[in-house]
Amino acid sequence: MTLYLSRLKISRKPSAAALAQLIDPDDPGRRDDAHHRLLWSVFAGDAGQRRDFLWRADGRGRFMVLSRRPPGDSPLFEKPEVKEFSPDLSPGDRLAFKLRANATVTKRSDALAPNGKRRRHHHDVVMETLRHVEPGPERAARRMHLAQEAARSWLDGQGARNGFVVADCNVEDYSVRALPSHRGIRKRQPQFGILEIMGTLTVRDPVAFLAKLAQGFGRARAYGCGLMLVRRA
User: Fold this and answer.
1) Is residue 211 over pLDDT 70?
2) Beta strands 94-101 and 191-203: pairing type?
3) Which one-letter DSSP state was computed for residue 40?
């Protein structure tokens, strides 16, 4: 499988600068939504085309993108730096990784869907862990420790299903974003958590692992989550 790993940077031309507040707004939730729409400009094609790329923002108008087709030119971006991504991996290879992920656990409810099956709900793994801790100073103090435990457990599960074993991982940050598409009172605005994880892993099944790299990890991939960047450790 050949993928394309690209570096993109928002254009410094006056025409792009004039749209700065639209394509790079200050609010984090609105910014993620705007960036997703912005990146579609380099993958424009069939109006019915499903998203076939993963991305992450690296600040200052810079993005990393992993895609199944090379990005095109856009007046909103500088010329993209593109290289084929087809690593030659073998069982036992050790890789360092960096991942921004919305990690969730899926649970079935008692409510039934139209197809007669029980509805499934996706819960952020850190929020789910914090739900069992009483509110107060202790909860705030334990937040990052619980995020570390939840992230490790989630990644171990990802590895078991997708051909790798986590050697070590460290949660650099955990933040919560409001879903930008929500329209309604702010108090009930849906939110999702974002884990910033770095660590090392050992490849067990290269085919399964590369397939997962292309698919992405976790949810909220439209909002800049799911892209795992790897290099030889």
Assistant:
1) yes
2) antiparallel
3) G
